Amino acid sequence: MSTRTPLMAGNWKMNLDHQQAIQTLQKLAWTLKDAKHDFSAVEVAVLPPFTDLRSVQTLVDADKLEIVYGAQDVSAFTSGAYTGEISPVFLAKLGVTYVAIGHSERREHHNESDRLVNAKIKSALGAGVIPILCVGEDIDTRRAAAHVQHTLLQLEGALEDISAEQAKTIVVAYEPVWAIGTGETATPEDAQEMAEAIRGRLAELYDRDTADAVRVLYGGSVKSSNVASIMAKPDVDGALVGGASLDPEEFAKIARYQSHAVGL
Ligand SMILES: O=C(CO)COP(=O)(O)O
């Protein structure tokens, strides 16, 4: 049995202003509280837009919520003349636990390279913020059956010069681009194939202990109706949820996949 604590992370993308964020988070917290959710069994995180983070922090602190939160991107630098960028030090100061790095939407719309992703990972780690490194192939790469090779190259590029101690703390999210926001989910077998390959490569790059410590999430059209079958796979340790995380009741159901898996 794995000792990795499953993580359900809701990537809100560019949705919900700071007032809507408060309402959504409150509803999520109430729903999980009503269900007596055990946060030590399944960790729950939300990744709101930057402009929501201070409000989220205030609510989490005031109500002593066990939900944790993160950002969707971070600068590769810690301070200076980088207009529009957000320092990892600012995120740490806001009590941020996680930051998504290298999401496919940033790779696509902002031309983020593996080199930049690597610099951002180092920057986040330096400030004590845990990277959720996003990797995954597009449809053409999958059709060419080059998806494993492609994704592992992204992984290696992102982890260059990262020590085993640091790598152990990182979360990796496998998000096949063709399954994001399309309603088309990879099968549990597809998710397992890649999660296992990622863990195998981590064992080669570092060692078995490191590979066994890293949580590997699946992302792409995850819903309460398909999460349990994906989570049943041994190398899948959670989900990075986009659209479905905007609905607090649906996201709470996703976080509570264990209760519907046994028909409760
Ligand atoms: O990109 C995603 C999470 O980061 C997945 O988005 P969807 O769940 O909307 O497919």
User: How many strand units?
Assistant: 8
Number of helices: 13
Number of domains: 1
Report how far the terminal alpha carbons are from each other.
Answer: 23 Å
CATH fold title: TIM Barrel
- The residue fraction in helices comes out at 40-55%
Which CATH top level class fits?
Answer: Alpha Beta
Spatial sequence of strands, sheet with the most strands: 1-2-3-4-5-6-7-8
Shape type: globular
**β-strand amount:** 5-15%
pLDDT under 50 segments (min length 5)? none
Note the main sheet.
8 strands, parallel, barrel
Assembly of the depicted chains: single chain
Subunit structure: Homodimer.
Catalytic activity: D-glyceraldehyde 3-phosphate = dihydroxyacetone phosphate
Keywords: Cytoplasm, Gluconeogenesis, Glycolysis, Isomerase
InterPro entries: Aldolase_TIM (IPR013785), TIM_sf (IPR035990), TrioseP_Isoase_bac/euk (IPR022896), Triosephosphate_isomerase (IPR000652), Triosephosphate_isomerase_AS (IPR020861)
Describe this structure in words.
The protein is of the alpha/beta class and 264 residues long. The protein has a single domain (7-261), classed as Aldolase class I (TIM Barrel), CATH 3.20.20.70. 44% of the residues lie in helices and 14% in strands. The protein contains 13 helices and eight strands. The protein has helices spanning 18-34, 53-62, 88-93, 104-109, 114-126, 139-143, 147-158, 164-167, 188-205, 208-213, 227-231, 248-255, 257-261, and strands spanning 7-11, 43-47, 68-71, 98-101, 130-135, 171-174, 215-219, 238-241. The chain has an eight-stranded parallel beta barrel, surrounded by five helices. The longest helix is centred in the C-terminal third of the chain and has 18 residues, at 188-205. The model has no long low-confidence stretch (mean pLDDT 96). 1,3-dihydroxyacetonephosphate binds next to strand 8. 1,3-dihydroxyacetonephosphate binds at residues 11, 103, 175, 180-181, 219-222, 240-244.
